[in-house]
Design brief:
Structural class: alpha/beta
CATH topology: Rossmann fold
CATH class: Alpha Beta
Number of strands: 5
Largest sheet: 5 strands, parallel
Shape: globular
Strand content: 5-15%
Mean pLDDT: 97
Length: about 140
């Protein structure tokens, strides 16, 4: 089974650990493209955070056509796993890009797994409407 992991770039190292765990379980795993670049040392997480703070991240995303590229990754996978950890004081945070990727998966009839509970955010109802499967941290439930 092929799994596309989605989540905030702030969670890159947690996503890396999830991917390794999933690979050990026999899954083929894809992670966010910028996370791959961070892990290869092409850019640092600190640079990405600075670009987010000053608004220049859009230039990077546009240059890589990252949204469309990850849409293609999601299309090639069987399921998505959203790595939703605490961020900025929000438990189980799901940011804009991850929410968008959940929408892609939903429209493509892919199963959507959330690592942790559904967060309380402006779009909580929309997340619920996509009927994600909440794992409560238990990756063995991905089937």
């Amino acid at each position: 089974m092929k799994v596309a992991v989605c989540g905030s770039l702030n969670f890159t190292y947690e996503i890396q650990a999830l991917a390794e765990d999933l690979r050990q379980r026999g899954f083929t795993v894809r992670i966010p493209l910028t996370s791959e670049r961070i892990l290869r040392g092409e850019v640092t997480l600190e640079q990405i955070k600075q670009e987010k703070n000053d608004g220049s991240i859009a230039n990077r995303v546009i240059g890589y056509d990252a949204i469309r590229a990850y849409w293609e990754v999601i299309q090639s996978c069987d399921v998505i796993l959203v790595a939703n950890y605490e961020k900025n004081g929000v438990p189980n945070y799901i940011g804009g890009n991850s929410f968008l990727e959940m929408g892609f998966a939903h429209i493509a009839n892919k199963k959507i797994f959330l690592l942790n509970d559904i967060p309380t955010m402006l779009y909580t109802d929309e997340i619920r409407e996509m009927q994600p499967i909440v794992l409560k941290g238990d990756l063995s439930l991905i089937k």
